[in-house]
Specification:
By secondary structure, the protein is mainly beta. The chain has helices at about 5, 155-160, and strands at about 15, 20, 25, 40-45, 55-60, 75-80, 90, 95-100, 110-115, 125-130, 135-140, 145, 160-165, 165-175, 180-185. The protein has one domain (about 5-150). About 5% of the residues lie in helices and about 40% in strands. The radius of gyration is 17 Å and the shape is flat. It binds calcium ion (2 copies). The site of one calcium ion has 7 residues, from loops.
Length: about 190
């Protein structure tokens, strides 16, 4: 049974990167000493490029009701930015982890990557957002990150999208590789 199903069953358990201590639930992509609770992940970046960094965090906007894998409803999350001019971004069901990517598209503001947990299973989704002056927009197609429920290091997540020599590259899992080889591709936007 995928670990994430147990997450919603209100049981006490420990399953690789996902734990539930009975009172609060935390999901971690970052096992061992590097463990970070996704719910408390908070970063600072200058999203609108005005020179003043914003604090950005994921918050829960609605608690789960019952078991979402049966007839319950999943929790809902969103990205809140300290700067009131930047609108709230609704995320849907699942927690995530935030990363600052720096200014990838040279619009003056730093881009924001969200690595979001799935409702079921262990394949996370990385979405890179850019703030265009009125709303968060996806900078490129989402990148699927299979984890086999083992968690990922912070460094591995930071290295998925890189700025090198003025160009942006990203790494996707090779669908033909059984050992998790990554394919390097140049991003165009
Ligand atoms: Ca700012
Ligand atoms: Ca930018």
């Amino acid at each position: 049974m995928p670990c994430i199903i147990l997450l919603f069953a209100s049981l006490s358990f420990s399953c690789d990167g996902i734990t539930n201590n009975g009172n609060s639930t935390s999901v971690s992509l970052l096992p061992g000493k590097d463990t970070t609770n996704l719910l408390t992940n908070r970063i600072t970046l200058d999203a609108d490029g005005d020179g003043i960094p914003e604090t950005i965090e994921i918050i829960m906007v609605k608690e789960a009701i019952g078991n979402p894998m049966e007839d319950g409803e999943s929790a809902e999350y969103g990205i809140r930015t300290e700067n009131d001019k930047i609108p709230f971004l609704t995320l849907g069901c699942c927690e995530g982890y935030l990363l600052s990517e720096g200014d990838l598209n040279k619009n003056g503001g730093a881009e924001l990557s969200l690595i979001q947990a799935p409702l079921n299973g262990c394949t996370y989704t990385l979405v890179c957002y850019t703030y265009d002056g009125s709303a968060w927009k996806m900078l490129m197609d989402p990148i699927l990150i299979p984890t086999a429920c083992d968690g990922l290091s912070k460094k591995a997540l930071e290295d998925r999208i890189i700025l090198e020599g003025g160009s942006v590259y990203y790494y996707e899992n090779d669908p033909n590789s059984e050992t998790g080889e990554l394919l390097r591709k140049q991003a165009v936007f």
